[in-house]
User: Fold Myeloid-derived growth factor from Seriola lalandi dorsalis.
Amino acid sequence: MATEINFCVVNLAFLLVFVSVVASDPAEQMKTVEFNVKPGGVVYTFSEGIRDYECSFTYASQGGTNEQWLMNVGLSDDDRLFSCSVWRPQGKSYLFFTQFKAELKGTKIEYANAYSQTAAAGQSDVPLKPEEFTVGDSTVTHNDGKFSAQLSKLTAIGKTRHDEL
Assistant:
């Protein structure tokens, strides 16, 4: 009898662990994808999302050649925060950006910052001046006439509209 109870408890414990692992698959909580930032003055948009949330990075740049950039999107374990980071992993971009906008769909931005240089090769992040960009409810956008045309990283964290029942 005790053996049957132990067998059932072990099976139940295994089932609970299996269900919790499957239900909280970390692959569904975060993604990092590579994309090319292209010069030429043409407006491009790159987007990535998780579930109901999406980050779109729209830009136009001049000079140089294509640069490889990364976009990371993540959803907190409790589904209350959605984050988006876009950056050049080699550090400073050699392109001149004429415009940029990041948009978080399905969230309200709680924090955002943009940088002219990213931490790489012993260098540290160099933030843009606050007057160079504007943070709205769902967007982070350059300010015409004040943006210095240097962008290497942009980070935004938004509060989701996820409510507990």
Remarks:
- Confidence is low (pLDDT under 50) at residues 1-24.
- The radius of gyration is 21 Å.
- The chain has one helix and eleven strands.
- The CA atoms of residues 71 and 86 lie 4 Å apart.
